[in-house]
Amino acid sequence: MFSLKRLAAVAASVLTVASLAACGAANAAPSSSDSGNDNGTITVNVGTMGTYSPYSIKNTDGSYTGYDLEVLKAVQKVEPTLKFEFHAAAWDSLFTALDANKNQMIANEIGKTKEREQKYIFTKNSYNYSTRNIIVKKGTKGISTLDDLKGKVVGGTVGDNHTKFLEEWNQAHGNPITIKYYEEDFTTVVRDVAAGRIAATVNDPNAALDKAKKQNIPVEAVGKPLSAQPVYYIFRNDAQGKKIRDKVDEGLEKLKKNGELSKLSIKWFGQDTTEESAK
């Protein structure tokens, strides 16, 4: 039979274990950034390349800027329940992190494709129109259209919209272009264009020429824009993703109405590229 002293010791031990368990539960990290803070703020981890200037830039001090990210900072001001934290990764890794819920959205000039729409959700509002041009070595003659690239090697980043556009055109015309695929940063592609290892690439001229200027790579955009497409922020297709998407959409609506979205576009590109007619 337990003595009163021993019974008291057992009871104290049980209370201690229960107290520690409660503390552990209170201090455990939330499984989702959508858990929110005490003030109702939702912390959203945003995947972005950080190397796709002028849209996504990670500075040497670890801070982030670029048009796509500055738009989100503006959204945060008009939707104070959102707090964005940016995380840089390679292109393919952006979607891997989104799938694993390490990030809850991606900001990287992303257009819609059938494959993406089957798996993810997008903002209802676009925040920019991205054009694509042929990019060649500076001074190249005789190339201004895709027809001029028949029989040549053209580089493209695996999985991006510009490469998909090139693939679709190529297939529709009997595959006259040899496409060389790159998984590295886009810098490698434009360097190979400048070195003559490939004849051209197809990409956003703002991104290509910005990178070329900063790294002194002699390339240029030629011909008329091949197309213009709206770009969106992309999210996981679940309840959390829809909640964050709706809040971001509300913010984008406010930025369009108060003119701030147009101001940001003019600041970064010298013109308002938020409407298709501007391209």
Automatic annotation (TrEMBL):
Alphabetical UniProt keywords: Signal
InterPro entries: Solute-binding_3/MltF_N (IPR001638)
Gene3D superfamilies assigned: Periplasmic binding protein-like II
Signal peptide: 1-28
Every Solute-binding protein family 3/N-terminal domain range: 43-272
Pfam families for the chain: SBP_bac_3 (PF00497)
Stored SMART domains: PBPb
Name assigned to this protein: Amino acid ABC transporter substrate-binding protein
Species name: Bifidobacterium goeldii
